[in-house]
Amino acid sequence: MQANEQRAILAIALAAAFSDGSRAEQERDELRRVAVALQPGPDFNLPALVQDAVLGQIDIDAMARELGSPQLRQIAFEFAVGVCDADGLRNQAETRFLADLGRALGLTQPQMVEPAAATDSIATVPLAGSDSREGRADDAALDQLILDTALTNGALELLPQTLATIAILALQMRMVYRIGAAHGCELERGQVKEFLAAAGVSLTGQYLEQIGRGIVGGLLGAVAGNLVGALARGATGAAFSFATTYALGHVAKRYYAGGRVMSAAMLREAYSDLLDHARARQGQYESQIAQRAGGFDVNRLADLVR
């Protein structure tokens, strides 16, 4: 993939992030942080793209013209759908943006409707899941839940399908819900998102960082559906998703076990410390992560989240 194509896809994704009309300072700061983390070199100014997105100055038609292949145009649209659904089902402004984007990319109605419906099916899965067997708090059981979710999310990031990234976010939210429920807290989706934000975890930022690493790291193998290629390039991504999920789970465990009295500053500090710990541990689980990735049915990701 050429640099202009990478830039175009990321520009479209960033435009999608602000298509809901939100210009919250926290969201802008998070996306700037992601841009700095992904910066591939001096000739590719991602922070400037973020600023253009904040100001509404990204020309979607011009970006669409940079994408010469049908595969890249489709992947750009799918990423944009994921960005819009990352923090919950899209609103009217985001729906209008996606319709305009689809027209700019020259996509047919099925090419727009099918990925949107598939993403919605994951983004709207109830947090309680299908069994609702949360039970009482049990340290060993919760530790196993956190580790299992972290392993699954590390494996999901190795998959070439764009839906896998939405599944990662959905599983993180469900994990937090189940930890809260185990401590007697029946949480709404909005409350889970508030906890994530307090801990410094942005769903949209995570999604953009995950897809950005794939784009900058070489997306063509993934676009072609080459799982072997994805596994070969995906160790860093798997480490990211494993570590963020693991750290998030253990912060949630501390927070709900302690009666939800930790301040946002305390949550962020705990999350940062646990993230370092999780990164150090990830290496011992690489074979399990790779094994899980090979065993997924990519056509049933919604079932995995339930």
Percent of residues in helices comes to: over 70%
Protein structure class: mainly alpha
What is the total tally of β strands? 0
The main β sheet shows up as: none
Order of helices and strands: HHHHHHHHHHHHHHHHH
Shape: globular
Q: List unreliable stretches of 5+ residues.
A: 219-235
How large a portion of the residues is in β-strands, by DSSP E?
A: under 5%
Question: Summary?
Answer:
The protein is mainly alpha-helical.
How would the blueprint of this fold be written?
Layout lengths: L2 H15 L7 H14 L7 H9 L5 H6 L4 H16 L6 H14 L3 H15 L15 H18 L6 H20 L6 H10 L4 H16 L1 H4 L3 H7 L1 H23 L6 H18 L4 H10 L5 H5 L1
Characterise the protein shown here.
With 306 residues, the protein is an all-alpha fold. It folds into two domains: 3-123, Orthogonal Bundle (TerB-like), CATH 1.10.3680; 139-305, no CATH class. The longest helix is centred in the last third of the chain and has 23 residues, at 235-257. It has helices spanning 3-17, 25-38, 46-54, 60-65, 70-85, 92-105, 109-123, 139-156, 163-182, 189-198, 203-218, 220-223, 227-233, 235-257, 264-281, 286-295, 301-305. It is 72% helix and 0% strand.
Salient structural properties:
single chain, 306 residues, mainly alpha, globular
